[in-house]
Design brief:
Layout (H helix, E strand, L loop, with lengths): L2 H20 L2 H8 L3 H15 L4 E3 L4 E3 L1 H24 L8 E7 L1 H18 L3 E7 L6 H4 L3 E5 L7 E15 L1 H7 L14 E3 L10 E5 L2 E5 L5 E3 L4 H8 L5 E4 H4 L8 E3 L7 E9 L6 H17 L2
Parallel strand pairs: 3-4, 3-5, 7-10
Antiparallel strand pairs: 1-2, 5-13, 6-11, 6-12, 6-13, 8-9
């Protein structure tokens, strides 16, 4: 094949894949630093060359046709092979390097991920790490993240989830609060206490409290006297200051700054929430990303032994 033609085809394939990922010629143009017209012309050339329609177009959106989906899957595999070949030739196949961009939730970021970051940097000094600590969902493609850590399993089928752990939950309070307000003995007693809640950004509602009783899981929407938004660690800090009862993960209550917290209602414990590391399924894992995931998984296993 003519080298110039090969180069043009490769560029068109990259433009096509970016358009398919973002489902928008305009968004692809912004991401690639070219004009929307250039994106549209590039895709049109591929369609003309192959004699098929790759996208079904509307005034606002584009979506892959059945033929487009097949072509996209093959293109992604080809681009991943080219990327692997480049890493091999540049000596980067097994050596983590570059910039690793991570998005983590507040609690897990502070208590679980940060210690791993330090170990990771000691092992792989050629990698720069950028960490976003927040409780919002990020867009891998538009924001350029390599991986994210989130509660539960992703609803997006384009993401791969590798489970890290089931984090156990407990009800905690400061001794001075319990001395003043008493120790709850049953779940019904919670209505007479100052319960501290975190407002979930996705729903605008308090995160429900979950318990186990007689072999069954119980989820309660308990009225809260204090509701906190933005930083869930604020709930635990307020509880440690004597503000009331909070349901939190055992690994947070075990932190030195919260060492005064006392667990109550132990007979109802057993509830947990799962954390997973997420990354796009159509993206070949770079050595920097794979090394971090492996280290994080190993650290979680050690913590839970």
């Amino acid at each position: 094949m003519d080298r110039k033609l090969y180069s043009n085809n490769l560029g068109s394939i990259q433009i096509f894949c970016k358009s398919a990922e973002l489902e928008s010629f305009s968004a692809a143009a912004i991401a690639l630093g070219i004009t929307p017209a250039a994106v549209s012309r590039s895709v049109a050339r591929i369609e003309a060359r192959m004699g098929v329609r790759l996208f079904a177009r509307s005034t606002r959106h584009i979506r892959l046709t059945d033929e487009g989906k097949l072509y996209y899957d093959e293109c992604i595999r080809a681009l991943q092979q080219l990327e692997a070949a480049e890493r091999l030739l540049t000596g980067g196949l097994n050596t983590p390097r570059g910039t690793l961009r991570i998005s983590v939730p507040t609690t897990y970021g502070h208590c679980r991920v940060m210690p791993v970051i330090q170990k990771y940097r000691e092992r792989y000094p050629e990698v720069e790490v950028e960490i976003n600590i927040s409780n919002r969902n990020i867009d891998f493609i538009e924001e350029g993240y390599d991986l994210a850590i989130r509660l539960g399993q992703p609803k997006d089928s384009r993401l791969v989830a590798r489970k890290l752990e089931d984090a156990q939950l407990g009800i905690y309070a400061a001794p001075e609060y319990l001395a003043q307000h008493g120790i709850p003995q049953t779940l019904d007693d919670l209505t007479n206490h100052n319960c501290i809640h975190f407002i979930m950004p996705a729903t605008g509602k308090p995160m429900p409290w979950t318990f186990h009783h007689n072999g069954e899981e119980i989820t309660l929407d308990i009225p809260g006297k204090v509701n906190i938004t933005g930083d869930v660690l604020g709930c635990i800090t307020y509880a440690a200051a004597g503000g009331g009862l909070v349901q939190t993960y055992d690994f947070i209550a075990a932190q030195k700054q919260y060492s005064n917290l006392v667990e109550v209602l132990k007979m109802y414990r057993g509830a947990s929430r799962s954390f997973s590391v997420l990354y796009p399924q159509n993206r070949s894992l770079a050595p920097k990303t794979r090394a971090f995931i492996d280290l994080l998984v190993a650290n979680c296993e050690n913590n839970n032994q």
